């Protein structure tokens, strides 16, 4: 973590020198010297990244001191910039003499502070060699920290695994993997016998190793492979040890012979031996591509059905090892599976017939198990802990109250297993991961919000010609690949993109590590005092934190170091919040989500370092005029707030504003010559005079949502769109009587020819008719047509869009019959038909919608029955029926309805009547 902090300070020093070189004069040399010192520290920390062992107290102390001095340097720089900004604001009313005196005072103070920090930095650098904290070796993979006692993580000795016996829910996984290993794939007589690598992927503690062992012990696997080897690779692997393990397991080679062979000779013997056999090599706990590269040389590419079974936390490693074999992604246990596993480990049966938890303990037990989040390792640890307690309500309640501590610090210690995932992250991902600590448990995480926060915090560094958002998206995907965060829900027609969730135990890891690194403080309760020195970030979640703000738990010194305040779902009094924020002059992020405050500080413009301002779900009605002074602001979120007009000062906010999301708002005034050229998101804004001179200049726009478009503004708006070459999302909502131009879906019009990258389109309002199919924008992947009231069947034309994946139609057709033509909608995954008031008949022709996963039908009151041909869509996983006629619903009844044969192949069928609040049927896995 310290390396990313130092990196940030180095960048700030460079920016300060470049921007203020004339004014800084002789102090610039001191700043350059300090920057050089930090660059050396930064280089050392990056080289040693991941090599500073947890047990090395000297190294930990040194890193802590580096972090603290870097924080001090950052405070000095930001305070200097703040003071200069304030002084320049007053300069118009002060005499030149006073202005000059003020500048000299600030400059003199800066010089003294820089000198003090430089002296401390030099002392800390000297301590690195003085106390034996040096990096040795030529490459980062060879680096170690010299200590009196070498600390290392021994995979075999310290590995805490899920017990091999009676692992609930693994039998089906074993069957699947056995089939993958021993069954010839249908790829031709030679290809199907080539060496394949099957990778089991998942977060630490899911039981990947246990599953791999169970697969190896399967009788069919033992018969199929006449040569097997199980090898622990681990994070700190040694090639020689791995080779010896393979030689011992596969060849029964003696210790004496192994010692006589050089490493190269050992490789040759293993390779020659395996060439003559159908082998299975299990590589357990592979962390990096380098590890695979060092091992694969001894695994010959024989064409006899040999296999490699690999377990890893990083899906990228699995893909790298074999791009043709699908990953086997191990998921958390379900609720029932988690409970069964817990009972097997926790309950002491008094007789052979007793298998289940006593009824008086069941509710407490299930509450404990829920906190494990389906992680087998945590459930096994919890079961072992409970098994040593009396089976009484009193004893189990004690465990429940201390559960988080027990899981982290108990004698079994899950922490070392999960900690490895964090310590193995590259330096640039560590602050991104720790940032998850700001979220409450079980929070659904929107990737757009997360990415913008990362950028505002300065975690994301420029890379080539990519935008910071594109780089941050790569960061997020890398964390997903490393199993540090999980996909909660995929994109669908109701949601623009994927959303994420973090496992509770991984969240606990981020919170505890963030506290250790002084990175972020998450108070456990409102009575907790701030014991951290110069904490950079504070996360307050839930109404119980109201009294934390009211009590003023943060001292002035602490608040002046804060860069981030995030408050979520707190109905705090406005006066208390304003008082709390009063002394926080260096904030970069202020997120007041759901606080229901009524106004912002009138002098909010003084927060010149502010990059992110989140006012979602507040009841603020107006923004202070000083908002225009926030020239560094990158993201302004007003969604679900009461703000419906933005001040004309918005146009003066400069080049840094990147994302502006509101809730049906308008903008006063008219743009300047170059207004908001770097704006990427403009959401839910009404048309107005600003559009004529402003929108066409926002050439960085990628997402535009525009409201109340009248016929007067339609043509000018179309002209502006022709200049937005980066636009890939467009939402156009016409005024009450306005017409939506069908050319928005076409590439034939000159002003839209350049919009080949426009992929997501939402159009609300009447459309006279769709363009001809050969003129439709073939790049569209997601389309919503709302209140279109088309007179011709839209499915005939839309079915020819070869890349369309999500289609949502709401009151889009006034006719009686629709048809999905043969081979239509080749890529469609989700289809929603809502409020088709006149629709009576629907037909699906052969091979239409071959990839459809979810069908949603709602409020089609004249539709008699499901279409013929639906039974041929074998890909369909979900059917959701809402507010459909009772006669329609009766046809879908299990085994009895006339349409049961059409839907019996669908795993999940849900039928509801929302208007009555009545749940009729939820049919799950009914086959």
TrEMBL record:
Q: Name one GO molecular function term.
A: ADP binding
Q: Name one GO biological process term.
A: defense response to bacterium
Boundaries of every NB-ARC domain copy = 191-349
Q: Please tell me whether the keyword Nucleotide-binding is annotated for this protein.
A: yes
Q: SUPFAM superfamilies in the record, alphabetically? A: L domain-like (SSF52058), P-loop containing nucleoside triphosphate hydrolases (SSF52540)
Q: Which residues form the Disease resistance protein winged helix domain?
A: 438-509
Key words of the record = Leucine-rich repeat, Nucleotide-binding, Plant defense, Repeat
What residue stretches are annotated with the Disease resistance R13L4/SHOC-2-like LRR domain? Answer: 576-881
Q: Where is the Disease resistance N-terminal domain?
A: 5-94
What the entry lists under InterPro entries is as follows: Apaf_helical (IPR042197), Disease_R_plants (IPR044974), Leu-rich_rpt_typical-subtyp (IPR003591), LRR_dom_sf (IPR032675), LRR_R13L4/SHOC2-like (IPR055414), NB-ARC (IPR002182), P-loop_NTPase (IPR027417), RX-like_CC (IPR038005)
Give the transmembrane region(s).
none
Family note: Belongs to the disease resistance NB-LRR family.
The protein here is known as Disease resistance protein
What organism does the UniProt record list as the source? Answer: Dioscorea zingiberensis
């Amino acid at each position: 973590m310290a390396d990313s902090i130092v990196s940030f300070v180095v960048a700030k020093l460079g920016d300060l020198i470049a921007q203020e070189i004339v004014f800084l004069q002789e102090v610039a040399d001191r700043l350059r010297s300090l920057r050089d010192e930090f660059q050396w520290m930064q280089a050392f920390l990056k080289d040693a990244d991941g090599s500073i062992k947890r047990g090395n107290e000297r190294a930990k102390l040194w890193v802590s001191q580096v972090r603290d001095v870097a924080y001090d340097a950052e405070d000095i720089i930001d305070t200097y910039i703040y003071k200069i900004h304030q002084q320049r604001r007053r300069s118009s009313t002060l005499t030149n003499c006073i202005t000059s005196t003020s500048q000299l005072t600030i400059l003199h103070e800066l010089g003294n502070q820089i000198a003090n920090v430089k002296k401390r930095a030099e002392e800390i650098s000297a301590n690195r060699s003085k106390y034996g904290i040096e990096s040795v070796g030529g490459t980062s993979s060879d680096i170690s920290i010299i200590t009196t006692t070498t600390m290392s993580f021994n995979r075999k000795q310290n590995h805490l695994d899920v017990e091999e016996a009676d692992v609930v829910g693994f039998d089906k996984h074993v069957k699947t993997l056995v089939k993958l290993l021993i069954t010839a794939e249908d790829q031709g007589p030679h290809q199907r016998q080539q060496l394949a690598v099957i990778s089991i992927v998942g977060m630490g503690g899911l039981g990947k190793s246990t599953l791999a062992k169970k697969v190896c012990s399967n009788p069919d696997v033992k018969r199929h492979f006449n040569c097997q080897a199980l090898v622990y690779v681990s994070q700190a692997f040694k090639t020689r040890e791995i080779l010896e393990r393979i030689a011992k397991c596969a060849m029964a080679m003696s210790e004496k012979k192994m010692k006589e062979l050089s490493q190269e000779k050992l490789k040759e013997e293993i390779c020659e031996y395996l060439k003559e056999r159908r082998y299975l090599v299990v590589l357990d706990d592979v962390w990096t591509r380098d590890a695979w590269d060092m091992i694969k040389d001894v695994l010959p590419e024989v064409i006899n059905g040999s296999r490699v079974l690999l377990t890893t936390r990083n899906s990228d490693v699995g893909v790298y090892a074999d791009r043709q074999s699908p990953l086997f992604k191990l998921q958390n246990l379900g609720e029932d599976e988690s409970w069964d596993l817990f009972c097997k480990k926790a309950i002491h049966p008094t007789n052979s017939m007793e298998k289940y938890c006593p009824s008086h303990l069941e509710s407490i037990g299930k509450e404990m198990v829920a906190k494990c989040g389906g992680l087998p390792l945590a459930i096994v640890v919890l079961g072992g802990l409970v098994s040593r307690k009396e089976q009484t309500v009193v004893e189990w309640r004690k465990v429940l109250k201390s559960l988080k501590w027990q899981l982290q610090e108990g004698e079994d210690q899950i922490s070392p297993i999960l900690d490895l995932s964090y310590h193995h992250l590259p330096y640039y991902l560590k602050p991104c991961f720790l940032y998850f600590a700001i979220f409450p448990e079980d929070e659904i995480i929107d990737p757009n919000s997360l990415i913008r926060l990362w950028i505002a915090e300065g975690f994301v560094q420029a890379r080539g010609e990519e935008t910071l958002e594109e780089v941050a998206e790569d960061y997020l995907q890398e964390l997903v690949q490393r199993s540090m965060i999980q996909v909660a829900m995929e994109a669908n027609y109701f949601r623009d993109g994927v959303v994420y969730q973090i496992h509770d135990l991984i969240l606990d890891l981020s919170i505890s590590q963030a506290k250790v690194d002084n990175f972020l403080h998450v108070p456990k309760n409102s009575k907790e005092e701030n014991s951290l020195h110069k904490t950079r970030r504070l996360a307050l979640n839930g109404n119980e934190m109201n009294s934390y703000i009211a009590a003023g738990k943060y001292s002035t010194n602490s608040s002046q170091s804060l860069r981030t305040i995030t408050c979520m779902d707190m109905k705090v009094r406005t006066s208390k919040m304003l008082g709390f924020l009063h002394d926080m002059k260096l904030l970069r992020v202020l997120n007041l989500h759901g606080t229901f405050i009524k106004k912002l500080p009138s002098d909010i413009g003084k927060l010149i370092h502010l990059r992110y301002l989140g006012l979602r779900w507040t009841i603020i009605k107006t923004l202070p005029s000083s908002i225009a002074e926030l020239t560094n602001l990158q993201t302004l979120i007003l969604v679900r707030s009461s703000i419906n007009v933005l001040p004309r000062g918005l146009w003066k906010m400069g080049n840094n504003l990147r994302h502006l999301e509101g809730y049906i708002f308008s903008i006063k005034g008219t743009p300047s010559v170059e207004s908001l050229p770097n704006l990427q998101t403009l959401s839910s804004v009404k048309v107005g005079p600003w559009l004529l001179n402003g929108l066409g200049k926002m050439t960085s726009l990628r997402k535009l949502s525009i409201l109340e478009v009248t016929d007067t503004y339609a043509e000018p708006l179309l002209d502006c769109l022709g200049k937005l070459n980066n636009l890939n999302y467009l939402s156009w909502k016409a005024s009450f009587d306005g017409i939506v131009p069908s050319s928005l879906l076409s590439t034939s019009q000159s002003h839209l020819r350049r919009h080949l990258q426009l992929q997501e389109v939402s159009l609300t309002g009447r459309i006279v008719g769709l363009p001809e199919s050969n003129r439709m924008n073939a790049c569209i992947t997601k389309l919503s047509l709302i209140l279109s009231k088309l007179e011709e069947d839209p499915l005939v034309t839309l079915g020819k869009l070869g890349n369309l994946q999500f289609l949502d139609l709401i009151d889009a057709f006034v006719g009686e019959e629709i048809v999905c033509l043969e081979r239509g909608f080749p890529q469609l995954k989700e289809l929603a038909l809502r409020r088709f008031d006149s629709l009576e008949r629907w037909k699906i022709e052969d091979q239409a919608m071959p990839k459809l996963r979810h069908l949603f039908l709602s409020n089609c009151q004249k539709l008699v029955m499901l279409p013929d041909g639906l039974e041929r869509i074998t890909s369909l996983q979900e059917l959701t029926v809402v507010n459909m006629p009772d006669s329609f619903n009766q046809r879908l009844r299990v085994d009895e309805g006339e349409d049961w044969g059409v839907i019996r192949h669908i795993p999940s069928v849900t039928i509801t009547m929302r208007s009555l609040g009545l749940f009729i049927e939820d049919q799950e896995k009914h086959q």
